[in-house]
Amino acid sequence: MVAAYNPYDNVLRVVDNAARILGYQPGEYEAIKYPERELQVSIPVQMHDGSVKVFEGYRIQHSTSRGPAKGGIRYHWNVNKDEVRALAAWMTFKCAVVNIPYGGAKGGVVVDPEKLTSEELRHLTRRFTAMILPIIGPDKDIPAPDVGTNPEIMGWIMDTYSMMRGHCVPGVVTGKPVQIGGAPGRKEATGRGVVITTGNILAKHGMDIADATFAIQGMGNVGGTAARLLHERNARILGVGDVSGAVFNPDGLDITAIMAHLGEGKLLESHCAEGVRHITNGELLGLDVSVLIPAALENQINESNVGDIKTKFIVEGANGPTTVEADAQLEKMGVVVVPDILANAGGVVVSYFEWVQNIQSMSWTEADNNAKLTEIMNRSFNDVWDISHEKGVSLRTGAYLIAVKRVVEAKKNRGIWP
Ligand code: NAD
Q1: Rg of the Cα trace of the chain?
Q2: What is the pLDDT of residues 108-121, one digit of tens each?
Q3: Which domains does the chain have, with CATH numbers?
């Protein structure tokens, strides 16, 4: 029987393995196995028909050892405490692997944002911000977008926080519209980082993006941007999927047409073009392509479907798309997996640039942000590649060897208070 999936258990198993290889005694890393602070809130919202609905929300700070907590806010009907805990912990290790001075946090609200009017969404966001206000702030914990949230919602968070503080505080949130202190390039940064990392892993195997074929699950901020940038670099993208299903063309999809279709607020199920076949998300994951980019949700590649995987490389755009069991199986199958905490770190890297600019009242150009992003993604990739080869472990284990060591050493240097 397949055990019930708990993403936080996944995190603990990967951390335990890295700590064992690093030679830490249990007491040396015990504290990083627990989130530092968890806030659960019940958010009442007056709906447009006059009724009142109460939504469940969370802000969980996994670690502030290396700096203020940092992490996105997810609006999705399937949000739950264990998921938010896992996402918060992944943020801690992601910030550590790319060596930016943050801890990790995540927030979430159990809601399908598609079912709310814009006004209801704004009321929900403002009330949620007010309820988590005691624990967020530019020196404490800085939210950002994730699944189901976007720059407009970040703008409402910044405005609510600023109104309650009585002055403008742009550094409380990243991924804001550029007109109010957002970093140019932040919206595309996660997808751009995924593409930089894809280029790096292919280059290590003597390949180029233009020679490779791709399948991408999730066509939102991360997957959609990655698809567009890969297409611009002449990659052949054979399959893409969203919540409604997937489309496939063995000769390569017209990504420009697909992005235009999605840009009108439509889903892939209604996309039609010559040579395009509709397939299931399961079939998408099993396509015989060079690179598979899961960029939707966690637990997509698991014990039940890992045997169907035919790709040579998986670059994890999503957080936690591969379970521990599937990961071990992929290693045996010879599939190279570039882990989420490295591959999708581009978003938090440019969020860091945004925050640095906000707190110094500076503004850099998009070219500055992209150049610095490329530098950090390349350096981090090489660090992970080198340690993985030195120790003879997977890239995921290599990434965690770097990240766990940085977090544990930070804790040791600070000591346990009091
Ligand atoms: P998004 O809401 O913009 O897009 C999500 C996409 O996934 C949509 O195309 C949606 O239709 C699809 N999807 C949802 N449920 C699905 C399902 N059951 N099967 C297949 N497709 C499904 O979200 P996003 O910001 O692109 O985030 C995607 C992933 O990347 C998440 O795991 C998120 O945590 C991670 N991530 C996002 C950022 C960021 O900056 N936005 C940064 C790092 C990691």
Answers
A1: 21
A2: 999 999 999 999 99
A3: 32-177 (3.40.50.10860), 188-338 (3.40.50.720)
